[in-house]
Design goal:
The protein has 242 residues and is α/β, with parallel strands linked by helices. The protein has a single domain, classed as Rossmann fold, CATH 3.40.50.
């Protein structure tokens, strides 16, 4: 367990499964958690449960991001907000969907980093940022041209941000999860022609849980990872080692 006592941490995408699990874990570990997302009702419910402070904003809007996060007293950030888009081949993909996926997953995370780091630098306490990427950035997955491309961009944002922010003692890392079988994932990964063949190629042979992603996020965020920056950590049951 990490110890984030006295540290403010923003978690975007907090109304989703991994985001909410991360909020719960960080709250248990003593952080002052700011729960970001668009669903105000879900954020308030999570706040009532955990003590997290709801911070509603749209990752597609730089103005909303700037207004919501610039004045928060933050030591850490977890960029967990994301959009799955569609399952499509390169020849069939909708460029409108592609643009939307890139806007949320890559551009949105970059804008959060852009607008939280001036305050982190000014406070001079260092800090830690964890971007929630995907195994789809590490290996080619059928139908994932938009999502995988957005997460590959996010991994590069991680590396460059780690390079630029290291001199301020701010670390930046990514976790790259495999599929968490949520209601949103079920429509594709729950298909008998998709899910079982995928799991047969994974050494651990099962879907991840939200808590199994929140744990590595907490580790990379914490002082236990104080010499780790610029990495992309697969949390994928060994799928990407094939």
């Amino acid at each position: 367990m990490g110890d984030f006592t006295g540290r403010g941490v923003l978690v975007t995408g907090a109304s989703g499964g991994i985001g909410a699990a991360t909020v719960r874990r960080l709250a248990r570990e003593g952080a002052t958690v700011y729960a970001g997302g668009r669903d105000t009702a879900k954020l308030q419910q999570l706040g009532d449960e955990t003590g997290a402070h709801p911070v509603p904003f749209d990752l597609a809007s730089e103005d909303e991001i700037r207004s919501a996060v610039s004045d928060l007293d933050l030591w850490g950030v977890v960029n967990c907000g994301g959009y799955g888009g569609e399952i499509a081949t390169p020849q069939d993909t909708s460029i409108e969907v592609f643009d939307a996926v890139i806007t949320i997953n890559a551009r949105g995370s970059l804008l959060v980093i852009k607008h939280v780091t001036p305050g982190m630098i000014a406070r001079n306490h260092g800090g830690s940022i964890v971007n929630v990427s995907s195994q789809a950035s590490l290996v080619a997955l059928a139908g994932h041209i938009s999502y995988g491309s957005s997460k590959a961009a996010l991994d590069n944002i991680t590396r460059v941000a780690a390079l630029e922010l290291g001199k301020y003692d701010i670390r930046v890392n990514s976790v790259n999860p495999t599929v968490v079988m949520t209601e949103m994932s079920e429509y594709y990964w729950g298909r008998p022609d998709i899910g079982p063949p995928f799991l047969e190629q994974m050494p651990l042979g099962r879907w991840a849980t939200e808590d199994e992603i929140a744990g590595p996020i907490s580790f990379l965020l914490s002082d236990d990872a104080s010499m780790i920056t610029g990495v992309t950590l697969p949390v994928d049951g060994g799928y990407s080692c094939r």
